[in-house]
Amino acid sequence: MSQTKEIPLMEKIVSLCKRKGFIFQSSEIYGGINGFWDYGPLGAELKRNLRTTWWNAMMREREDVVPLDATIIMHPAIWKASGHVDTFADPMSTCKSCKKLVRSDQWWAMMCEQPWVQSLAALVEPGTDAFHTGDLLKWAKGKGKQLAPNLALVRNPEITLSWLAQDHEQGKRPQDAREFYLYLATEQRNVTGFVTPCPHCGGELTEPRPFNLMLRTHYGPIESDDNLCYLRPETAQAIFAQFKNVVDSTRVKVPFGIGQIGKAFRNEITPRNFTFRSREFEQMELEFFIPPDEVVQLIHGNVSTWSEGADLSTPQPNWGWEMWHRYWVAQRTAYYAGIGLGPDVLDYYWQSKADLAHYARACVDILFKFPFGTEELEGIAARGDFDLSQHQKHSGKPLEVFDEELRAAAVKLTDEQRAAFITKVQEDWNDHNKSREDATLFCERLLKGFYVPHVIEPSAGLDRLALAVLALAYTEIEKTDAKGAKETVTVMRFHPRIAPKKVAVFPLLKNKPELVSKARGVYDLLKKHLAADYDEGGSIGKRYARQDEAGTPFCVTVDFDTLGERGPELLDTVTLRHRDDGSQERVKISDLLGRLLPLVQ
RNA sequence: GCGGGUAUAGCUUAGUGGUAAAGCUCCAGUCUUCCAAACUGGCUAUGAGGGUUCGAUUCCCUCUACCCGCUCCA
Fold first, then answer.
1. Prediction ipTM score
2. What residues pair up with A283 in beta bridges, in sequence order?
3. Where in chain A are the domains?
4. In this structure, which of A182, A227, A311, A437 has its CB flanked by the most CB atoms within 10 Å?
């Protein structure tokens, strides 16, 4: 069979996911539902394994992180405090001409970057809004035609400019540059009112429509505004909301973390790329609480900041936020390497100051090279004390911790040292646009031993990780069969730790009862400790191929040697076959678990 | 939400205004001593709803889902 066209890799992966039971479309028999995906038998195991690796690496194997499992629906005030009610309702406009989507809050910023706006700005006298109608007319017929073809000024310069002239005669002039562009975009002002121009082509933008990205529901049987609530758009906020309870119930001390794995929901505008962006997804989030640098300074007399090559292996008491942030990037990188995602498939994107949310100090995205592009797998943000402070403010409940060392250090300060410390904090905070009052209050509490911890947030998407792992595992091998015909076989090369099934057991032949019962026995032995599979259908080669597609790293075959037919030295030994190179070795049944368990755990 | 494309079995494809074909997969059996063997038999499909028509999988409309762009960033 000659392949007439090359099927894109992503389509092959989607097809395999369905065929083998990794991922199905949600509600498929009813036509499916946009942005929702189900995990089939193999996918459910795969995801569970990934979840477990995160849980173990982030919590079980550490002394300083504890878990939480909070509800999906929480008090709606949480989302007010976190800012999601506001920021997740971005109003958007569509251009009636070029159909592009524009976020209303970014309209002016986009405008300023456009060549047509910049070339127009050159015609307007800086600072005065003074301009020559002749210049504008000339622009409209020349540059404007190329740069902003759908702008009213370009399509119909005389009429458009007449409004400007008319207002001008009456002493009205555009208040600012923004309004100036509204004039230039408006042709029939008496009919349409002012038109907002599309930054891309100058065409007319629709009225902004709200895009609320949170899914809503109501608690209680009667729907009303009083019981409106949201399905959480992230798991993180529950951690902040329960921060105090965790601190009070577990004897944790800063620095420490709270981790959580759970579902989150976002009404994405366009779910896309298979499960990569879906409306219901699972997050694995850690909020790691650290002392503010000011606290570290006071207790230790210095703050360790990051420099190239700094040792990030073991946390130090004098680490500042920057070190902790880098530390978690290193930790997460090591985690990914441990499940097979090495440096060759990962990338990092350090957000620039302009990209950062206003409260964030730094954020790095860990990216994976997906078949459809290099996209985010996890974000690691240094969020300062924004979240806890917001909840402290909105709830009215103190979310500070008390640090005995801190108080002891503060007590030792002389009055001059205290004053100098406070002045220094006020200056530093001023540089970050924070008020002097806030700084003073912060110092007051701090010198008594109280502070609101800062947070480093490694936040990973489980579904994205599952997709990454599927994409990475997918391998096609060209084979030539006995007749010389070429065929392509698929092998899912999962890291053994995350493979859905660890081992499959076969009798060499299914019509020999002795082989079957022996193989069953081996299967019963293994399945108590490993995700194991038993198969006696088809030929031995077919069974290997089936397991290769499922990504099972090991197959065990019971043959006549196992029964001792060729002598006692091979009695109770089996063939252990390795997925990736097809190699085989002879292993005693009693040694199997000892061999396999270390490889898959 | 807007624009473009797609929709036939579990998968990959064929085909037709007159009741859908094939390969692979899957299941059962015969056989088979280690990488999708062979043989026999079997299950399974025109995304949903309307319209035109004597008759629609085929033509038209609507919806849904998927893919590509605008947008988004766990």
1. 0.92
2. A262, A461
3. 57-74+228-418+452-466, 89-210, 501-600
4. A182
Domain A501-600, CATH homologous superfamily name and number: Anticodon-binding domain (3.40.50.800)
pLDDT at site A543: 95
- Domains A57-74+228-418+452-466 and A501-600 are alike in CATH topology: no
A556-570 average pLDDT score: 92
Burial A385-416 (b: 16+ CB within 10 A, else e): bbbbbbbbeeeeeebbbebeebbebbeeeeee
How many Å apart are A30 CA and B63 C1'? 12
Residues 251-290 of A with CB under 7 A from strand B: 266, 268-274, 277-278, 281, 283
Contact flag, residue A536 CB and nucleic strand B, below 7 A: no
**Shortest CA distance to A286 belongs to which of A406, A417, A381?**
A381
- What rounded mean pLDDT belongs to chain A? 89
Q: Would strands A346-350 and A280-290 be described as parallel, antiparallel, or unpaired?
A: unpaired
- Pairing relationship of beta strands A373-384 and A454-461 according to DSSP bridges: antiparallel
- Strand B closer than 7 Å to the CB of A7? yes
The whole-angstrom separation of Cα A440 and Cα A544 is 69
Q: Is the pLDDT of residue A3 over 50?
A: no
A570 in contact with nucleic chain B (CB within 7 A): no
User: Quick one: which residue's CA is nearest to B47's C1'?
Assistant: A31
Quick check: A64 CB within 7 A of strand B?
A: no
**Residue A126 beta carbon within 7 A of nucleic strand B:** no
Question: Which pLDDT belongs to residue A267?
Answer: 86
How do residues A124-174 score in pLDDT, each as one tens digit?
Answer: 765 556 677 788 888 888 888 878 878 888 888 888 888 888 888 887 777
CATH fold label, A57-74+228-418+452-466: BirA Bifunctional Protein; domain 2 (3.30.930)
CA–C1' span, A215 to B42, in Å?
A: 47
pLDDT value of residue A4: 34
Q: What is the spatial distance, in angstroms and rounded to an integer, between the CA atom of A506 and the C1' atom of B42?
A: 25
Question: Which 3 state secondary structure label does DSSP give A412?
Answer: coil
CB A172, CB A180: distance < 8 Å: no
Asked if strand B comes closer than 7 Å to A19 Cβ, the answer is: yes
Arithmetic mean of pLDDT, A115-124: 80
